[in-house]
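re: ur question from the group chat, yeah i did fold both. here u go
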Amino acid sequence: MQRSDLVERLLWSIALPGFGQLLNRRFLKGLLLIVLEFLINVRAKLNLVIVFSFQGDMTKAVEATDYQWLMFYPCLYLFAIWDAYKDAGGGEGVKFATVPFVFSAYIGTIGVIYSSTFRIGGELLGPVFLPIVALIAGALVGAAVKRVLAALT
């Protein structure tokens, strides 16, 4: 598969979990991920939380969030991205290629856990922005761990 196809699957999976799988012709897996994304999104009230967050009302965002459901989202999201990437041929021959995705999911979930209380400069980042920062931090930590593990083997 061409690199542009790989990037296309990766970007569609970032847009909505399951779309990358559909493009990879993994229809059952793609539909299952879309259903799970929809279920978690609705139960966690994620769209409402996103609206409040982008409007800068973190108190309303935190109050609207169902954390029991939102905690599932980072793992589902990162799994869908990794799976679409892998099925499109990404990471072939790369040792520990999954590590940045796994660390991003773990640390993103920790971001969800602390999103109702964690403040920077007195400002609450909330249940959207703190997990996004945590996902990026997790990917960076995972990339560093991947390099170390690859060097040790």
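okk and heres the other one u asked abt
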Amino acid sequence: MGNSDFILKQHVESGLFLKAKSWVVYNGYRASGSSILPTPRPDRVRFGYLGRITPIKGIDLLLAAFNRLNEPDTQLLIAGEGNERYLHKLKKLVSSTKVQYLGYVKPEDLFNQINVLVVPSLWNEPLARVVYEAYGHGIPVITSDRGGLPEIVEEGRTGFVFDPEKPLALVSKMKKFIEDKSLPGRMRKDCLRKAQDFLPEKIVENYIEVFQAAVNKHLN
């Protein structure tokens, strides 16, 4: 059992649990109803990043893509903590008032300020919680195609997936939201729907199904 298809495949390719039945059970998350606010100004695109400030998270890539956009009314909010030396390097990479470093903030505090979350990870994320946290607040997501990320994104409905090895791939996905500023609002319903897959009660049901199947197999 794994929390993503990616994790299950990694186990099998390593020669583990070859005779076991495979199950995917996601991790759970529920957004507080009081923290789900309307999508920010539809006439402005605010991209956001939430997570550790470290090279494997692809923040350099995100900053380079944002810099290429060269859009006057577009902002990037970066939330999270990390190595101060690396953070200083990032601030020098793109020196613009359109990029704000917020430090540590509660997820809902960021989601209530942005239209789109970007998860540009360069490593194979097993199942990035931040993606379905964003869904729980009605926020679409742009993710890299690493690890379990692409399997929880419905392309064109809850977000977009890009290949970080292609220099302009992230730029083109971000441009979709700039060229059609109503897109985040239209995707909101599908994001909130997708968030239902990760509700704690849904996850409990999935675990019960796994345990019941194991019991039935043992009894038979």
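fwiw on the second one: The chain has eight helices and six strands. Strands lie at 45-50, 74-79, 99-103, 116-119, 141-144, 159-162. idk if thats what u expected
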